[in-house]
Every structure is written in structure tokens, then in C-alpha cells.
Write a structure and sequence with these properties.
Helix content is about 35%, strand content about 15%. The protein is α/β, with parallel strands linked by helices. It folds into 2 domains: about 140 residues, Aspartate Aminotransferase, domain 1; about 240 residues, Type I PLP-dependent aspartate aminotransferase-like (Major domain) (Aspartate Aminotransferase, domain 2), CATH 3.40.640. The protein has a 7-stranded mixed sheet, sandwiched between helices. A 3-stranded antiparallel sheet has the order 9-10-12. The protein has a two-stranded parallel sheet with strand order 1-11.
Length: about 400
């Protein structure tokens, strides 16, 4: 099996699960307890927090452990907006993940916020000029993702953060598809809050992090025992905190290694070129990758196939041992066209034909818990040629 759905989830790292194992078994204490077992668990939790902070370039006190990016997006968006009501204006884009869109819709329905949606072009890029125009003294929050999970487009978060900082507006960022592929240093980018999900880069499902900058006003929407600095009450999952810290540490410095970056980007660029050359009906979603510009993720290649059935293509690929997806795993099984592609200007019928191939960074000496076949671009391209020719009749 060739597994090409890493944007949905990746096989966990063996070492990350081993690091977590004691905290699922013999070291079972509640980190809020004051006896020896609890204090030992507390020490492991805080060590994991320090490690995550080192990986992301921030303070340990700014790291909140969560169950994943959906929870982190909910907490970050609602917490920042409710603490900064101003004129109740939120700025975002309709290409955001569903957890971001739903969190914003909640604020609109229940707290009288309003939204200005930024336009995206055919390649999924937002306009910095439009953002600068709509930012105002009424803006409570801007929420924009770093890398889109369907188109692969990379937004210029440093520039976006600079505009928000100049306007004294909090910025929340869904960075799920950035971690492990792009350099993310929060000491250099003035983001107010940031969400990541562990199972996208080698940690287990159910592990996540929310970064909240110490200077940001924040209103907790998860109340209870006051854990996680009062921002996310509930007994902490020490094992998964340890695991996500370990997985992040495995990636630490890798995205700064130009050779590794070039390797994945070159592989994806070659694959995209080969598909577009060999499959006449294939159209690339998002910007075409080039050697000198980093406008799309090196880990995502998505196509639409005019006049064909996307679900049939997926099933035929799976029959040939190639696993991929139509887009966001959170929308899998839905007959509705991708909201991302619709926002990019695709008509509904063409949007329904989307097929996404997504890759994982292979780190030297780091083993995963599942073994899959190495990526074989020729095999995948030939399969697409056979399938599309058959479906075209």
C-alpha cells in the first residue's frame, strides 16, 4: 500500500508512543494531585510543556495542551474574540477549516459578532491589500490559517501578523498543516494564538496544543478546575502531552535543513508536473510550485478532473493499493462539494472531482509504527492515466 493521505493523519512515531507509555501504565497519577504519583506526573507534564515551547519558539507558560486542533481553534478564536469585543468585527476567509468557520459562526449567532470574509483568488491566495483595508478599530479578531489543507497554498503569515500587530488586532492561526513542513518560530511572528494537532506530524490522535501569547487578552470558555492556567480546565492527558512534545522535538530543526526541505518539495513538484503532463483532464488546485518561490506546501498536491467522478477515482486508486482522499478528512463522506474549492471559484461539479495526495516528511533515523510502501510516482501517475482513460470512455 502506498499511503498518500498524510494531511488527514500520519502513522505515529515509535519513539513518541514509547515516551508516552509509562504515563498510560505505571505512572498513572493525576498531575493535580499533591502526592508522589501526582507530583511525578506534574513534572512530566511541565517538562513536555518546556519542550513544546522550545520547538515553537515561545514561553512554556504560553503552551496549553488540548485534544487537537478542533478544540484549540475553538478555544483560541472564542477566547480572543470574547476578551476583545471592540466593534465585534471578525476577519477571516471562507477557505478556513470547518472548526474555524463553525467557531466564528457560533460567535455570530450567540454574541452578535459580524464577519468580513476576505476574497481568495483561483489559487486560494488572500489579498494583503484587502486585509489592510478591512482592518479597523472595530476589529476584534483576525483568524487565518498558515497552510490550507486542501489547496496547499501557504499564506504569508509573517506579513499578515505584521498588519494585525500594527492595528493592535489579535491574530489566531490554524497551523495544523504547517508543523513539520515549514519553519514556525513564534518568537519571530507576532501571532496571538496558534493551533496544532499532533496526529498530523507523528504524535497520536487526540493530542494537540494551543499557544496563547502572554500579552494577549483571553477569556476562558472551558471552565472547571483551572488546569492549563485556567484556559482549558480538565484533567490533563500527560501521556499525550509527552508524546506530542517528543514528536515536535523530532521535527525540531528539520525544516531549517535546506536539503530535507528541497527533497520533499522537489518530489512533490516532479509529481505535479508528471500528472499534468500525462493526464489531460487533470487541473492542479492551488499555485504551481516553482524552485524559487514557496507558495504551496511541499506536502500537498491536489487535482480536479473535469467530467469525471472524484469518488470513483479514489476507489479505483485504492483498488490499486494507493490511498489518498478527496480533501479534508473532517468532511469525508459528504456529498457536498468542498467549501474551499467553491470559495476559490470552482463550480460545484468540478469541485466534486477533487483528489488530494499528501506526503509526510521522512526524518532520518525516526521510525513510524506502520510500514507502508515507499512513494512511487511512476506507479501513481500510471494508475491515474489508466483510471481517467477508462472513466472517460
Amino acid at each position: 500500500m502506498i499511503y498518500l493521505d498524510n494531511a488527514a493523519t500520519t502513522p505515529p512515531f515509535e519513539n513518541s508512543l514509547r515516551a508516552a507509555w509509562p504515563w498510560l501504565t505505571t505512572e498513572f497519577g493525576n498531575p493535580s494531585s499533591t502526592h508522589e504519583l501526582g507530583l511525578t506526573a506534574k513534572a512530566a507534564l511541565e517538562s513536555a510543556r518546556e519542550s513544546v515551547a522550545e520547538s515553537l519558539g515561545c514561553r512554556a507558560s504560553e503552551i496549553i495542551f488540548t485534544s487537537g486542533a478542533t478544540e484549540s481553534n475553538n478555544l483560541g478564536i472564542k477566547g480572543l474574540a470574547l476578551a476583545n469585543p471592540r466593534g465585534r468585527q471578525i476577519i477571516s476567509a471562507k477557505t478556513e477549516h470547518s472548526s474555524v468557520l463553525a467557531s466564528i459562526e457560533f460567535l455570530v449567532r450567540h454574541h452578535d459578532f459580524r464577519v468580513d470574509w476576505l476574497d481568495v483568488d483561483r489559487e486560494g491566495r488572500i489579498s494583503l491589500e484587502q486585509l489592510a483595508t478591512v482592518l479597523s478599530s472595530d476589529t476584534s479578531l483576525v483568524s487565518l490559517m498558515w497552510v490550507n489543507n486542501e489547496s496547499g497554498v501557504i499564506h504569508d503569515l509573517p506579513a499578515i501578523a505584521g498588519l494585525c500587530q500594527a492595528a493592535s488586532v489579535p491574530l489566531h492561526c490554524d497551523a495544523v498543516q504547517a508543523i513539520g513542513h515549514l519553519a514556525v518560530n513564534l518568537a519571530e511572528v507576532p501571532i496571538s494564538s496558534l493551533a496544532i494537532s499532533g496526529h498530523k506530524f507523528g504524535a497520536p490522535k487526540g493530542s494537540g496544543v494551543l499557544f496563547v501569547r502572554a500579552s494577549a487578552a483571553f477569556e476562558s470558555v472551558a471552565n472547571g478546575g483551572g488546569q492549563e492556567s485556567g484556559m482549558r480546565s480538565g484533567t490533563q492527558n500527560v501521556a499525550w502531552a509527552v508524546a506530542i512534545a517528543d514528536a515536535l522535538a523530532q521535527h525540531r530543526g528539520v525544516t531549517a535543513d535546506a536539503q530535507l526541505d528541497r527533497g520533499l518539495a522537489q518530489q512533490t513538484r516532479n509529481f505535479i508536473d508528471a500528472v499534468l503532463l500525462a493526464v489531460p483532464r487533470a487541473q492542479l488546485v492551488g499555485p504551481r510550485p516553482t524552485i524559487d518561490r514557496m507558495e504551496r506546501s511541499p506536502a500537498i498536491a491536489s487535482f480536479v478532473f473535469e467530467g469525471l467522478n472524484g469518488e470513483t477515482i479514489l476507489l479505483e486508486l485504492e483498488r490499486r493499493g494507493i490511498i489518498c482522499s478527496s480533501g479534508s478528512a473532517c468532511s469525508a463522506g459528504s456529498t457536498e462539494p468542498s467549501h474551499v474549492l467553491l470559495a476559490m471559484g470552482y463550480d460545484p461539479d468540478l469541485a466534486r472531482t477533487a483528489v488530494r495526495f499528501s506526503f509526510a516528511s521522512e526524518l532520518p533515523g525516526v521510525k513510524r509504527t506502520a510500514t507502508t510502501e515507499p512513494f512511487d510516482a511512476n506507479r501513481v501517475v500510471q494508475a491515474l492515466v489508466e483510471i481517467t482513460e477508462k472513466l472517460a470512455g
